[in-house]
Automatic annotation (TrEMBL):
<feature type="compositionally biased region" description="Polar residues">
    <location>
        <begin position="21"/>
        <end position="30"/>
    </location>
</feature>
<feature type="region of interest" description="Disordered">
    <location>
        <begin position="1"/>
        <end position="41"/>
    </location>
</feature>
<protein>
    <submittedName>
        <fullName>Uncharacterized protein</fullName>
    </submittedName>
</protein>
<keyword id="KW-0175">Coiled coil</keyword>
<feature type="coiled-coil region">
    <location>
        <begin position="161"/>
        <end position="225"/>
    </location>
</feature>
<feature type="compositionally biased region" description="Low complexity">
    <location>
        <begin position="1"/>
        <end position="16"/>
    </location>
</feature>
Amino acid sequence: MESPQSSTSSLLSEYSGNPKIETTNKSPLSTLEIAKRSPSLRNLKTTSSQEKFYNHKEAKPNLTNSVQEFIKQSNDIQTEIKKICEICEKISPKKEFEESSEESESTGGILWNEINDMLNEYGFHPITLIEKDEFLIPDSSSMADTLVDLLYEFTSQNQLLKERSIEYQNAISEINELKDSQNDLENKIEALKTEKTNNKLADDVKELEKICMQMDEKMRKFKKEQHRKDSLIRELQAKLYLKSAEKSIVDILNSSVIDKEKKVFFKMMNRDYDEKQPTDIKIMAIILMYEQQRIMQDQEISRMRLSLQDNRGFSKSSENLSFLNASFQMSRDSYSIQGIFDRLGVQGVPEAFKEIEKLKGAYLASKSLEDSINKIHIELFNEPFTMSNMHDDVDETIKALKSYKNIARDFNDFKKDIAVAFGTEIYDCENLIIKAQSLGHFRKLFQLKDDDQEFDAIEQLFLFVHEMKMFLQLARKALGTNEKVPIKFVLEEIANKILDS
């Protein structure tokens, strides 16, 4: 039979989270070892000490894994209290224990006193000791009460942990809200900075436009001063320039797009250039126009450099040439923007944005159409649509669609013919199926072969039924019976008449 000490140790080990410590009746030292080894008994405090512990300024908001596990098991602990009480009631204080050694019996009372001192130190009721056979042994009911007090203390501690956990969660939620508010403020500040930067850029653009106008004025004066000295050279260079420009334009129009422009297109659109896309062709034309303008400007600068080398004021002209080159570099963007406006056929930035939106819409529409064609191609051929074989794939798709259209039309005509044959509505497919099943059932009933015709069988059946009706009608008339008389009675009367005759 299990002793009260072993039952107590099993209960303590179950609710303290430690492995069960085996105890025997040979030595009461095992009970003291349970109290000393159990971290739950060592860490128990009174209500006031618990509040001090939780209100301590160095308490951390993060709960350890063991505490979280204890919170999860709190409901199970509360439900097990009743079971423990029932177990404690079953422990009889009058049960006899096995004899222990003389040394254990002499020191048993002292060890229980030490346990009671520990319980008093942590604010619990001591265990009542009763004297039996000149030895002090613990009262089982008192021990059970003390154990229940310990479990209730665990429950209260669990409740405090739950409350603290809720408080920490609320605090974390408030911190997250503050972080979101901080992010919103940072975004607003960043937006304000961006707006200021845009305003500054607009002012810079206006300043650059003023500088460009000044440079243009200086360029006109410079050309006017040098006009008399290089008029002949300029005419010759102009002719050469026109020929070279005409040749370069023809080469660009007749040749394919080089890799450099393709790379520029890839950087702008983040995809490869497709010669079959109208939108890609327009964008590539704009890129080529910019490149041609750059080449023309370089040729103009080279021509002016050659013309200035023949003049005496070379040093001064060289400085003016450098200044002119810088002005060309600064005004290149404005020329490019004007080129974009000319290419798009607009007069200002708002119209340019509208035209670009139209091109974007056309591109997106083409992508949507391509996706639709791809889905249809997959449904028909179980393979994706490829742009490399676009014309072949489109032809195959159209042929397949025409074939399916013919099949659907033939099927619709067939369904109409079947409906007319059965005398039902065209779209009443369920009724058509029932009619077809009834025809098959008719063939089975009359055991028609595959070569037999249903029309002949139906006509023979109709004649047979008509003859039987006429026979029964004449028989009833001869016998003097009415139509309500069963056929069996009529046949029996006829048989009797034949036998009597």
